[in-house]
Amino acid sequence: KGKLPEAVKAFLLTRNNEKLTIVAEDYVKVGMFDKAIDIFNLAGNKKRLYQLGDQCLIEGHLAESIKAFRLLGDRDKLLKVGDVCIEKEKFEFAIEVFKALGSKEKLIATGNLCLEQGKYSYANQAFELVGDKDLLNKLGDTLLREGLFTIAEVAYKAAHNEMMVEFIKSNFEGRRSLLE
């Protein structure tokens, strides 16, 4: 009682999936969803893994929901989680999901939304993952207009736009934005 890690080891060694599931349920009761997901996975309890993934999504535990559906290999559920992440403006999670799914169009849409909302680092991350030089240059241009020279330089470097990188270095070296 109370020694759940030791219990998990013992139940793994004896291949007692029923007891592993009970331990996982104990972790759910105390809100330790990450550990519960691991143990449901070890127990091979896909049904409960799906339920917990959905529960985590509803309750806003997005990282745990992503983990559950990744372990299950459910692309449709992951897409749904990614869309919820966008709605809740949890762009770092959305980008992680869409990267895992290899969804270039979702990454581009997320990057464009981040660009519109001034979430430039997320826009850069999304555009860089896609490898879209035009979008990275567009981001660099926006950042340059905003006076965010260091971040603009990063975007231009990712776009392999050496001319703009040198332009920033030559003209704005001493005037880096205090916001950066």
Question: Could you characterize what this model shows?
Answer:
The protein has about 180 residues and is mainly α. Helices cover about 80% and strands about 0% of the residues. The mean pLDDT is about 90.
Secondary structure: elements and pairs:
Blueprint (H helix, E strand, L loop, with lengths): L3 H10 L3 H13 L3 H11 L2 H14 L2 H11 L2 H13 L3 H11 L2 H13 L3 H11 L2 H14 L2 H10 L3 H11 L8
Helix pairs in contact: 1-2, 2-3, 3-4, 3-5, 4-5, 5-6, 6-7, 7-8, 7-9, 8-9, 9-10, 9-11, 10-11, 11-12
Helical coverage, percent range: over 70%
Q: What is the straight-line distance between the termini?
A: 51 Å
Number of helices: 12
Largest sheet: none
Query: Class by helix and strand content?
Result: mainly alpha
- What Rg, in angstroms, do the CA atoms define? 22 Å
Summarize the structure.
By secondary structure, the protein is mainly α. 79% of the residues lie in helices and 0% in strands.
List keywords for this structure.
single chain, 180 residues, mainly alpha
